[in-house]
Every structure is written in structure tokens, then in C-alpha cells.
């Protein structure tokens, strides 16, 4: 993975607003990353300063080892989970395609 891709991924994650969530796949798609798993790796290695708690699995659930803290942080932002799952139809980030300019016009 190159530094440019890592920075794009970080920028996309940082752009997910409070009160919204995105999936690892959403972030991969927007940033041009080859895999949602790479997003998880970037977050685990270099995501401490990002809103990591807004990024979920494709089924709307947090990673098992983060579930309590992640859901609590989301509740504080107004995202109300149903049990341990977030309703992606309600809370999923709807990215404005015009925001691509903020990412250096790479898309």
C-alpha cells in the first residue's frame, strides 16, 4: 500500500460526519482502495486520530472487540443502534459526489 492511498483513505474516513456511519466497503469504494479489509488495517494501524467508530461492517455491526466502545460513541452522536446493529438505511453516510474535489479530484 502506498502513502497516497493511505492518505486518501484517511481523508474519506475523516469526512464521515457525526451522526452518520459508513461501511468498510463504502470507504474502500470512495477512496479507491482494493479491499474493505485494507480499510480495517489502516484504521487499526493509523486510525487513532480518526472517527473510527463511524465505520462498520457491511451488516451494520461493529467489530466484536470494539462493540461496547463503538456503540457508545455512536449513541453520543445520535446514532441509535438496534441491539448491536446500526440501521444502515437510516444512518448511512450519503456522500455528495461534489466532495470529490476535497479529495484532490482523484475520483
From TrEMBL:
Keywords recorded for this protein, A-Z: DNA damage
Keyword DNA damage: yes
Gene3D superfamilies from the UniProt entry: Winged helix-like DNA-binding domain superfamily/Winged helix DNA-binding domain (1.10.10.10)
Classification via InterPro entries: ATL_DNA_repair, MethylDNA_cys_MeTrfase_DNA-bd, MethylDNA_cys_MeTrfase_DNAb, WH-like_DNA-bd_sf
Pfam families: DNA_binding_1
Domain Methylated-DNA-[protein]-cysteine S-methyltransferase DNA binding residue range list: 5-79
DNA damage listed as a keyword: yes
CDD domains registered for this protein in UniProt: ATase
Designated name of the protein: MGMT family protein
Residues passing through the membrane, by range: none
Amino acid at each position: 500500500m502506498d502513502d497516497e492511498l493511505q492518505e486518501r483513505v484517511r481523508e474519506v474516513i475523516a469526512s464521515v460526519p457525526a451522526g452518520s456511519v459508513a461501511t468498510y466497503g463504502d470507504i474502500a469504494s470512495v477512496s479507491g482502495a482494493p479491499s474493505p479489509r485494507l480499510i480495517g488495517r489502516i484504521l487499526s494501524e493509523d486510525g487513532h486520530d480518526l472517527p473510527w467508530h463511524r465505520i462498520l461492517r457491511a451488516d451494520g455491526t461493529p467489530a466484536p472487540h470494539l462493540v461496547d466502545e463503538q456503540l457508545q460513541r455512536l449513541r453520543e452522536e445520535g446514532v441509535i443502534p438496534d441491539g448491536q446493529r446500526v440501521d444502515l438505511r437510516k444512518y448511512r453516510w450519503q456522500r455528495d459526489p461534489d466532495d470529490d474535489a476535497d479529495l484532490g479530484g482523484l475520483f
